[in-house]
Amino acid sequence: MADLSSDFVGIKSPNPFWLASAPPTDKEYNVRRAFEAGWGGVVWKTLGSEGPPVVNVNGPRYGAIWGADRRLLGLNNIELITDRPLQANLEEMARVKANYPDRAIVASIMVPCEEDAWREILERVAETGVDGIELNFGCPHGMSERGMGSAVGQVPEYIEMVTRWCKTYYDKPVIVKLTPNITDIRKPAKAAKDGGADAVSLINTINSITAVDLDDFCPEPTIDGKGSHGGYCGPAVKPIALSMVSEIARDPETHGLPISGIGGVTTWRDAAEFLALGAGNVQVCTAAMTYGFKVVQEMISGLSQYLDEKGMALDDLVGRAVPNVTDWQYLNLNYVTKARIDQDLCIKCGRCYAACEDTSHQAIAMKPGRVFEVKDDECVACNLCVNVCPVEDCITMERLTPGTLDERTGRVVESDYANWTTHPNNPAAKEAAE
Amino acid sequence: MGNTQFTPGVVAGRLPGDVLDDNFGDLHPPLDPHEAAVAADRCYFCYDAPCVEACPTSIDIPLFIRQIATGTPEAAAETIFDQNILGGMCARVCPTETLCEEVCVREVAEGKPVEIGRLQRYATDTVMAKNSHPYERAAATGKRVAVVGAGPAGLACAHRLAMKGHDVVIYDARPKPGGLNEYGIASYKTVDGFAQKEVDWLMQIGGIELRAGQALGEAVTLEALREDCDAVFLGMGLAGVNALRAEGEETGNVADAVDFIADLRQAGDLSKLAIGRNVVVIGGGMTAIDAAVQSKLLGAEAVTLVYRRGQERMSASEYEQELAASQGVRIVHHAMPVRVIGNGAVREVEFEYTQDGPNGLEPAGETFRLPADQVFRAIGQRLEGAPDGITLEGGKIAVSGAGRTSVAGVWAGGDCAAGGDDLTVTAVAEGRDAAEDIHARLAAE
Ligand SMILES: Cc1cc2nc3c(=O)[nH]c(=O)nc-3n(C[C@H](O)[C@H](O)[C@H](O)COP(=O)(O)OP(=O)(O)OC[C@H]3O[C@@H](n4cnc5c(N)ncnc54)[C@H](O)[C@@H]3O)c2cc1C
Ligand SMILES: Cc1cc2nc3c(=O)[nH]c(=O)nc-3n(C[C@H](O)[C@H](O)[C@H](O)COP(=O)(O)O)c2cc1C
Ligand code: SF4
Ligand code: SF4
Ligand code: SF4
C-alpha cells in the first residue's frame, strides 16, 4: 500500500485528506469521530471574534440539486461561521490536538478587517498548539454583508494586508482560503502570495440559488417566505474548482505557491485530479456531509491503489498534469479523431443519434435493426455522443493516424503539430508571417 | 368445523379468510412515490424507443416516464390515456414481459427492464384516484354509433367516438360492463373492483349509453342497429368455448375454465367458493394458467395443468408459467385427455402421451390417470353469435384496414375480429383505431 503521508507546508498528516472548515469540523465530538474514521486532518469550523457568537437561521440552511436516484450533486448553504463561543472551540481544539498529535488541525479564522482583531485572536489560537491557520476570505453570504468573508476575498489589497498581519503575529503556516466569486482567481492568489501566505486553499462556495419554490415563489431554502443566495458546493462545482486550481498552478506569478484543493472532492479519483493539477492536498466537505466520515476510507484505499499501480509516490502526482494545461490557441489542430461505436456494447437506445442528428452534425446513421454507425465524412469528433451514451466506453474517440484521409475534410492527416497561432485563417498569424 | 386442503371432494372454505385475502391480493403491488421516482430514473429516454413500438397502443413511454420523473404523474397519465383509455387496466394485465418490457434496452443490456407496467399504473392510478377525467367531448355531430360488447374493444371504441362528438349506445349481453376485465382477468391482477371503477371513470366522458343485458341476436339485431345508427362496431369477444372431445366430458364437475373464473371474479366471498381437492386443468394458454393458479390459491391440494404439446408451444408466457410453478401448480406437457372417469362426479381423468409426428400431433401409446375432483377445460374460446351474413376468417370476423368488416357500415375489433393477439391491449388498440376510421367515414359523409 502506497505511503500517503503528507507534508503540506510543514503540516504533517497521515494522508492528504482533510475535512474542510464546515459543520463536520464544528466541534470536538465530530472531529474525534472524523479522526477515528481515518481523516488526515481537519480545518476547524471558522472562528469569529470574542463576544456574543453569531446566530444562524433557525429554518432550513441547505438547498440541493440531485441527479438520478436522488444522488446529491450540488449543495448550497446559508450557514454562517461557528455559532459556538470562541473559548469553547479553542479549548476543544487544544484537547483534540493533544490527543491526536499525528493529525493536522488548522484553525479557520474570520474576524473584522482590523489589525487588533486579528492580533487578538491569533494569540489565542497560537496557545492551542494547532498546526496552522486558514483565513476565511470566502463565505459568500451573511458574513460578507458585514465586510468579512468574500467581501475581503474580492479585494486583493485587503487579502494582502490581512495576510501580512497574520504572518506578523503568528509563526505557524498561514493558508489563505479564496472565494471563487470573482472573475480572475489569479489576482487574489497573487495578493495572498505577496502578503506572505504559505499556501492558498480553494474554492470556497459559489454564489447560488439552487431552486425556487413554485408555490410560494421564493428561493430555496426558504425562510418564512424569503430566501437569499447561498454558497454552492458538492460534485457539481468540481470542474470550476479544478480550473481555478490549475490557473494558479500554471501562472508564472503564482506557480509554486502551495495549494490545498477544495470543491466537490467525492472520491479518491476527484482527489487525485486535484493533486495532478497542482494541489498539495485536498479538503472535503459535501462528500462527508452526504455519506458520513467513512467515505475517507474509499479515498485512502483508492488513492493508494492508484499510486501503487502507477508506481508513483504521492509527491510524484502533485502537479503532474499542470504542464499539460494550456491555452486553446496551442491545441494541435492536426489531431484528428472520429467517434467509434462498439456494437457489442451498444444497447441501441439511440441517444447518440438523437444528440448528433438534432443538435450536432448529423454524423450518426440509424440503420435497420437499430444499428447506429458513425459517418466519418460528417463526424467532427465533438464528443457529444460519447457524453450522452449511457454505456461507458461504448463510444470512444479514435485518432486517425497521420497519413490517412479525413473523409470529412478530404485532407490527409498531417503528422506535424500545428495550432491556431500558425493557422492560415488566423489574421494574427498572417500578420506575423508578413 | 372447517374444511382443509385435504377435505375430499369439491368444497368451500379450504383456507382461512385472511389467507385467501392474502392470496388474492395485488400480484404486483403499486409503486409508492419513492419507488416510482427510482424506477422512472432508470429510463434512458430512448430515441424512437423500441418499447413504444412494442406497445400495441403505441403509448409514448419515454415521455410519460419522464413526466413521472419530473413530478407530473397527471401529465404522464394523459400521455398514456391519449393512446390507451384503458391504460389503467393494461398497466395491470399486459404481459409486459412479451411486450414493451421485453424490448426495453435495459432488458437487453442488463436483463432488468424499466418497470414500464408498474410506472404506467402509478401514473394512471394518480389520476383515477382524483377521479378527474382529462377529456372533453367535441361539439355534437348528431351521429349515432352502436357498439356491441362492453369489453376493452367496445369501451375504447365508444370513448373515442364520444370524444369526437358522436352519440354512442353500447349493448352487452352480460349484466355488468367490462367484458373479460370484469369476468375473466385473474383476480390478483385487478383487485378492489378496479374493472368497474375504470368503466365508471371512462363513462365520465359523457355521450355513452350502456344497455346491459341486451345481447345481439336476442334483444337486438344487426339489421336494426344498421338502420337506427350511422355505424356499428362489433366487439363481442369470444363467448363460446371449445370442447375437449374426450369420452365422458359431460360428467359432473367438469366445467369451462372461463366460467369458473367468472364465478370467482363475481364471488363476493371467496370462502364460499367451492374448489376440488385434486384439480386438473386442460390447456396451455393464459386462461389455463389463471384457472390453475387460482384453484391453488383457493386451497386445492394438488393442481395439475396438462397441455397436449411441448412447453415451447404454450401460449402462456414464460413469466406466467413460472408464476404457476411458483404457486405449486404442476405442469405436464405432451398429454391429451382421452377419458373422463367418474360415476356422476368426476373421479379421474385418463390421458395419453403425445408426440410430434410428421402429420402433427400423434398418440405416443402410453396412458396415465390423474385423480380429479374437478376438471377445467381451457382449450380456447371461439366466436359465438356472429351476425348472419358477415364474412368470417378462421372462425373470427374478417376485417380489413382499421376493422372494416364485409358488411358496409360495420366494423369489428378485439378478440372477435381476425388477426392480432387476444390481449386486452390489442382489443383497446383495435377499438380505438376502428373509432378513428368510423369518425373519418362519418365526417366525410
Ligand atoms: C381467463 C382469461 C384471462 C386473461 N388474462 C389476460 C391478461 O392477463 N392480459 C391480457 O392482456 N389479456 C388477457 N386475456 C385476454 C383478454 O381478456 C381479451 O383479449 C380481451 O378482453 C378482449 O377484449 P374484447 O373487448 O375483444 O372482448 P371481451 O373482453 O370478451 O368483451 C366482449 C364483450 O362482449 C359481450 N358480448 C358477447 N357476445 C355478445 C352479444 N351477442 N351481444 C352483446 N354483447 C355480447 C360480452 O358480454 C363482453 O362483455 C384473458 C382472457 C381470459 C379468458
Ligand atoms: C457546446 C456549447 C457551445 C456553446 N456556445 C455558446 C456560444 O457560442 N455563445 C453563447 O453565448 N453561449 C454558448 N453556450 C452556452 C449556452 O448558450 C448556455 O448559456 C449554457 O449552455 C447554459 O445553459 P444550459 O446549461 O441550461 O443549457 C454554449 C454551450 C454549449 C454546451
Ligand atoms: S439533519 Fe435533519 S435532523 Fe439533523 S439537524 Fe438537520 S434537519 Fe435536524
Ligand atoms: S448512445 Fe450508446 S448505447 Fe445508445 S445507441 Fe448510441 S452507441 Fe448505442
Ligand atoms: S426502451 Fe426502456 S429505457 Fe428506452 S425509452 Fe423505453 S422504457 Fe425507457
Identify the notable features of this structure and list them briefly.
heterodimer; A: 434 residues; alpha/beta; TIM Barrel; Alpha-Beta Plaits; 4-stranded antiparallel sheet; 14 helices; 31% helix; globular; B: 445 residues; 5-stranded parallel sheet; 17 helices; 19 strands; 36% helix; 20% strand; binds flavin-adenine dinucleotide; binds flavin mononucleotide; binds iron/sulfur cluster; iron-sulfur cluster binding (chain A); dihydropyrimidine dehydrogenase (NAD+) activity (chain A)
Quick description:
With 434 residues, chain A is α/β, with parallel strands linked by helices. In chain A, 31% of the residues lie in helices and 21% in strands. Chain B is globular, with a radius of gyration of 23 Å.
This entry's quaternary arrangement is heterodimer
Helix share bin of chain A: 25-40%
Unreliable spans of chain B = none
User: Taking strands numbered 1, 2, ... along the chain, how are they ordered across the largest sheet of chain A?
Assistant: 3-4-7-8-9-10-15-16
Keywords (chain A): Iron, Iron-sulfur, Metal-binding, Oxidoreductase
Domain 4Fe-4S ferredoxin-type (chain A): 337-369, 370-400
Enzyme class (chain A): oxidoreductase
Family (chain A): Belongs to the dihydropyrimidine dehydrogenase family.
